[in-house]
Design goal:
alpha/beta, D-Maltodextrin-Binding Protein, domain 2
Length: 512
């Protein structure tokens, strides 16, 4: 197993005071409705969203009950009802299927609302702007929720520094450091707005049986090792895919991509962009790790970015033609159906892969380019709405603490209802988890362990820009890339146009 020490190249800072302090406890910060809607670039569709939840238990204004000596800190808010709004993810599916342990521990009732991400962002924006908390616990996507709405999320140091609440087991250091920064912080390294909840990461997924069968032939024909991993280059990936197109009758095409005009296309392209030395902004990794409100000028017109776009277009030319219609689900289904021999995709598809093609699919970090290897990280955290008050606010923290605990993350990993993979170092150190990293495995997502451990190293992780206006920038990127793939523009035209639009979006800015 890869060394867990690799994850702590940047030690997670301990909670401390800083220039952006949380609002005094028991108070509510207010923000303009216009500001929240503008931040998320919401249109008429958002305003027409279904009405928010009714009946959220107590109204949240009840005073926090005092903690007497000997009191159970977990049962301080027994009888309270809170609502958790989440993207429909594997960890949430697992928790929703087994909420009884939390209710038994705390006496708190939790209602879970699962939505597609764009619908979640709209609902969160409206709820934060309302001044009331229909949703006390929020799935805080770093790019579409945390960056634009960090002012609407509680700085969790409010609870981390208060010994009247149960401590976070293992402390913040038990979270993988790069994930705590990317999923939990914005702009500064002191405030903590969310605890890492999930960690999907893009890696190389491939048919091991085909590489076993054709590996020597491919190596002889291509003149290089073909073993998937970070020692391979993207040019070698291209050559392998092309060889499989011509010689492997077991599959229709050597490779496939999630190149639909969708967020998936931005993710797929970004791995190649970063590997080539290109980026969206000059301070690329800094913008992705902690984020910033003003990232400066877009650099998609750089020589490296242009080269990446040109190569990505050529990669799509030899990929399965349906790639331009696939998101991550589509390309994952194609791999399982035997349509393609390999693809970049999120590592948490391993469980589905193992069910469909047991023992036939293996995993490796994505190839490298002239600059580095880069593996897109898509993890998110969960946080608390600043509109939540009193008992609801405290109950929300108990849920965030519990839902990200090592015990629950291990339970999620084992769950037949969902799964996901842990964000806690201590879970990966468990003997039963380490044993599951090799077949036969009763925790199939752990078959990706070596690949994702390498992908999470600071020099290999791919972090998209964490800026308030990212949603609009993302749409610009995948729209221009889609035109390029369709032959409606050249790679250089696509990058130039995307840069121009992104500069306009960023310069327009956002004021809450």
């Amino acid at each position: 197993m890869a060394a867990l020490a690799d994850f702590s190249a940047k030690e997670a800072p301990l909670p401390r005071s800083g220039p952006f302090r949380p609002a005094p406890r028991g108070t509510r910060r207010s923000y303009s409705r216009r500001g929240f809607l503008r931040a998320g670039a919401l249109g008429a569709g958002a305003l027409a969203a279904p009405s928010l939840l009714a009946g959220c238990g107590d109204d949240g204004t009840a005073a926090v009950p005092p903690l007497e000596p000997g009191d159970d800190k977990w049962r301080r808010f027994a009888g309270t009802t809170i609502n958790f709004i989440s993207e429909n993810t594997a960890p949430t599916a697992a928790i929703a299927a087994n909420l009884q342990p939390f209710t038994q521990l705390t006496g708190i009732n939790v209602q879970i609302v699962n939505l597609e991400l764009s619908a979640l962002v709209q609902r969160v924006a409206l709820d934060l702007a309302s001044g009331d908390a229909a949703y006390q616990v929020i799935y805080a996507d770093p790019y579409q929720v945390l960056a634009p709405y960090s002012a609407g999320l509680v700085d969790l140091r409010e609870f981390l520094e208060d010994d009247s609440y149960p401590p976070v087991e293992g402390g913040l250091d038990d979270f993988i450091a790069v994930q705590l920064d990317a999923a939990g912080r914005f702009s500064e390294d002191a405030p903590v707005y969310a605890l890492p909840y999930d960690c999907p990461t893009m890696i190389w997924q491939y048919r091991q049986d085909l590489f076993d069968r054709y590996g020597n032939q491919m190596a002889d024909a291509l003149g290089h090792d073909v073993t998937p991993g970070p020692d391979r280059t993207w040019e070698e990936y291209y050559a392998i895919a092309d060889w499989l197109n011509q010689n492997a009758d077991e599959v229709a095409y050597g490779s496939g991509h999630q190149a639909k005009q969708h967020d998936s296309l931005m993710n797929d392209f970004s791995n190649v962009l970063w590997a080539a030395g290109g980026d969206y902004f000059e301070a690329g990794q800094e913008v992705g790790l902690l984020g910033m409100e003003d990232p400066g000028e877009c650099v998609l017109d750089s020589e490296e970015s242009m080269a990446a776009a040109d190569f990505y277009a050529s990669l799509l030319e030899i990929a399965h033609p349906a790639s331009s219609t696939w998101d991550w689900d589509g390309v994952g289904a194609a791999l399982r159906a035997g349509e393609i021999a390999m693809c970049p995709n999120w590592h948490e598809f391993a469980a589905s892969n193992e069910e469909a093609l047991p023992g036939k699919i293996s995993y490796a970090p994505l190839p490298r380019g002239p600059a580095r290897a880069a593996n897109m990280y898509g993890g998110c955290g969960i946080g608390i709405s600043t509109n939540a008050e009193g008992a609801e606010r405290g109950a929300a923290w108990l849920f965030v603490n519990w839902a990200t605990s090592p015990e629950v993350q291990l339970s999620n990993l084992k769950s037949s209802a969902g799964g996901g993979t842990p964000t806690r170092r201590s879970v990966y150190a468990l003997e039963q988890v380490q044993q599951a990293e090799t077949r036969p495995s009763d925790l199939p997502n752990m078959l990706t362990a070596d690949a994702v451990f390498t992908a999470w190293e600071p020099q290999n992780i791919g972090l998209r820009p964490k800026i308030p206006m990212w949603n609009e920038c993302d749409t610009t990127i995948f729209t221009e890339l889609s035109k390029m793939i369709a032959g409606e523009s050249s790679p250089s035209e696509a990058m130039t146009s995307a840069k121009s639009s992104i500069d306009s979006i960023v310069q327009r800015g956002w004021v809450a």
